[in-house]
Amino acid sequence: MDFTIKLSFIVIIFLFGWLYQEQNHEWDIQRNLLKDANNISAHDAALQIDDDAKSRGRLIIDPLAARVTFEESLRLNLGLDSALDPRSGSPMRSGVRILHFEILDDSNSSFPVFYQNPTYGIAQWVYGPSVISVIETDHPRFVQRVFQQAPIRVPTVQEYKENRL
Predict the structure, then answer these.
(1) 60 CB-near residues (< 8 Å, 6+ apart)
(2) pTM for this model (two decimals)
(3) Nearest to 48, CA basis, from 70, 33, 32
(4) Which of 26, 48, 50, 164 would disulfide-bridge 140, Cβ 3.0–4.6 Å?
(5) Which residues, 6+ apart, have CB-to-CB distance to 146 below 8 Å?
(6) pLDDT one-digit tens code per residue, 55-104
(7) Angle, nearest 10°, between helix axes 2-46 and 63-78?
(8) Measured between alpha carbons, how far is 79 from 14 in angstroms, rounded to an integer?
């Protein structure tokens, strides 16, 4: 009887350790998917340049077109619906939330500028017009109410840099 209790306890510990490892592996996969999609979406948004301003020598990103393009790119890259929730066949386990979307360009900044956003832990020099975004999704959970962890949050800064040779 003593052996059975000890063996049961060891099996339970092993199972919790295994589930924790699998959950963290799934976190890594979800974070990589989110980071890649955020980078691609911010890049697509940064391409929405106002042609009239460009003809006058200023790089100004159209805010409405950039935001629409950003969301559409996220939907396409992650298999999300219009509410940014996963569709059937999506690699995401839960919905994606856009926490922050900001544009720095010639209309509101002079470059280089040291950009800081303490809310999302972003601090870096920005040398040209940029799209800054932060998205998040829930941390995957294999066992409810066990291993509760913070959501996966991914920031990105997509900028135009002057070609210095």
Answers:
(1) 49, 50, 53, 54, 105, 106, 107, 129
(2) 0.84
(3) 70
(4) 26
(5) 16, 19
(6) 898 889 999 999 999 999 999 999 999 999 999 999 998 999 999 999 99
(7) 140
(8) 35
pLDDT > 60? residue 147: no
Q: How much is the average pLDDT of 40-47?
A: 96
Cβ burial, residue 159 (10 Å; 0-12/13-18/19+): buried
User: Can you tell me the distance from the alpha carbon of 108 to that of 62, in angstroms, rounded to the nearest whole number?
Assistant: 12
Give dist(CA 124, CA 159) in Å, integer: 12
Q: 127 and 159 in contact (C-beta within 8 Å)?
A: yes
The residue written with tokens 């975004």 in the block is 133
Lowest mean pLDDT among 9-23, 29-43, 56-70, 141-155: 141-155
Measure the CA–CA gap between 107 and 100, rounded to whole angstroms: 19
Question: Which residues, 6 or more positions from 58, have their beta carbon under 8 angstroms from its beta carbon?
Answer: 105, 106, 107
Residue 117 tokens, joined:
């956003």
141/149 Cα distance (integer angstroms): 9
Domain residue extents for the chain: 2-159
CA dihedral 71, 101, 115, 121 (to 10 degrees): -90
Q: Say yes or no to pLDDT of 142 above 80.
A: no
